[in-house]
Amino acid sequence: MQVDEGINSVSYQSCPMNGGDGPNSYSNNSNYQRRLIEASKDLINEAIHDKLEIDSSCVNGSKPFGIADLGCSVGQNTFIAVQNIIEAVEKEYKAKNESNSPVLEFQVFFNDHSNNDFNSLFRSVPYSSRNYYAAAVAGSFYGRLFPNSTLHFVNCSCAVHWMSKVPTEVLDRESLAWNGNRIHYTTSSEKVYEAYAAQYKNDLECFLSVRAQELVGGGLMLIVVPGQSSHLVSQTPRATTTWLLESCLLEMVKMGSISQKQVDEFNIPIYFPTLKDMEEITKNNGNFRVERMGIVRGKGYIKPSVEFLVGSMRAVMEEILKQHFGDEVIEDLFERYAKKVAQNLDSFYTKFREYEDLFVILKRKMN
Amino acid sequence: MQVDEGINSVSYQSCPMNGGDGPNSYSNNSNYQRRLIEASKDLINEAIHDKLEIDSSCVNGSKPFGIADLGCSVGQNTFIAVQNIIEAVEKEYKAKNESNSPVLEFQVFFNDHSNNDFNSLFRSVPYSSRNYYAAAVAGSFYGRLFPNSTLHFVNCSCAVHWMSKVPTEVLDRESLAWNGNRIHYTTSSEKVYEAYAAQYKNDLECFLSVRAQELVGGGLMLIVVPGQSSHLVSQTPRATTTWLLESCLLEMVKMGSISQKQVDEFNIPIYFPTLKDMEEITKNNGNFRVERMGIVRGKGYIKPSVEFLVGSMRAVMEEILKQHFGDEVIEDLFERYAKKVAQNLDSFYTKFREYEDLFVILKRKMN
Description:
The structure is a homodimer of 367-residue chains.
Chain A: E1 3-5, E2 11-13, H1 31-39, H2 41-51, E3 65-70, H3 77-96, E4 106-112, H4 118-124, E5 133-138, E6 151-157, H5 190-214, E7 215-227, H6 239-255, H7 260-264, H8 275-285, E8 288-297, H9 306-325, H10 330-343, H11 345-351, E9 356-364
Helix pairs in contact in A: 2-3, 5-8, 6-10, 9-10
Region (Disordered) (chains A, B): 1-28
GO molecular function (chains A, B): metal ion binding; methyltransferase activity
InterPro entries (chains A, B): MeTrfase_7, MeTrfase_capping, SAM-dependent_MTases_sf
């Protein structure tokens, strides 16, 4: 298991997306995520217009406006998200300031795990069109990444469903939450779901607690995260892809190319929070005012094809599968997966429209 | 030619050191540079003790202390340099503040060209022992890299002898400074030297001008750069390695593996400034007070071996040679180079002790 060590020496599981710009790269297989970034543009504009205190101690041109994109991965998505934020802030800043006010400088921090492909990221920065200072920060967003009160806007899109680790109970044969023969809570029992939910609660509490230190008072945070409206796991439309992947792995156990033990010990460290999860954890943290919080359906919808569904899965899951099962089984695994997706393609036309995502805008309270 | 584009859309030639941690990597072939970092530790301590205004508007715990290491490359050298700076600042900060003063946070920006191997850099950050927030910034240090007044200490060690580009005149057959059949001014005529010196003057002026904007008033900059005490090029001890490399290339022209035209069009974009260069350019810029400026001999001295001399050359020159002559000639070139170094090893025992380096401490004047 690859880990990332924070400034506080805590280790976090690291699940990088596929780097580079090849056919299986995240760059070329992240259209769903792109759609969500596009869908959040109006929300960003509205939040910055209504909630960002320009010309106050928060944003005043004497310090750079700090933006962090957490879980930026590689490819154009992160640059689009950042550009949307900057355009909105610039518009407000110009509207609320005299033309001779100091120019507002932007410093953007692109963050992901230390084994993210930052070389690709730096090569794809839109140098000629950008109007900001770019920096990369490596490390888990469940730990501290930035000095106190240096960020004005945090963006975290399609990232905070990745947990800091697999809940220990699901790996423990003695536990009621043991998840042998299964790879995720969405294909498993209520006990397993509870273990995931408890771990997620811890993780998101850490996330909010460190962000509260890094954001200036009055600073904003946009969280877009794959979610679920019901805690009943069988009702999670995203369960289908997990179930298909799991059935491929179980087939491969039968074929002898991987072991039962390997499957028993593999669990995907992803949780799809409900609105209730998000409300409770934010409230417990207490440092943020909830400006917007809602769940939407089908915002990332693209007419599904086998290529798209397999590509999307592979770009985000290949590394973690390689880490656990070894490089040599990956081609076979995704060939099997492609076959199963093809057999079930009809069901995706419906399911995929039902994918739910949470959109949350938080504002850091003044101390 | 690989280039790096700045926020101002100016292009700069990019000459990355060898990445990774293999036998030809910069990580494993930068002992000379390491020696210079060690040699500058006392200078850093002294400058921070005597010249850094702790508890003023410059350093006061309300903002993070910003450090940039420009031309950081890969490997441990950059982390050692940064740690030296942080230890010195922390010591002063503690000595000059009450124990209940706010903790001073450090934010360190590791900078190099966008084709530097930042993935290796991030993997080698000493996560468990570091006491700073780390970020990487890609781009040429001849352009703007950071927002206004956000840095308190800039370190630039063994980097600013790399110019932003080869002077255009040395590539122009019609010019008196045309440098056909030669690859550097140290093996060539006075006219070629003058063209290099003029380009360097421009480059260093840009460097100082952008740093003056990025450093806070009272902020410090340490520049360590391979230099020369005389402008007489034949007296530059470093000419020997260039001359050997050049003679390998000319041999390869005779063998037909590269063309005369390729050699005519190749020039190393490196200049070794004199004290006089540095004094004049700093004075013209006007934004800095010179706190220390001197030239030292043999500070990086290590008893030379063929392996060391070839490794050092290859780690820094392989990429730029590949870019120009192609990957396929590199092995042959460095085999020839190794033979010539072996034949001339005796002369290195003397020459290498005479290598000269400039050590400069500048302080940003208050506006």
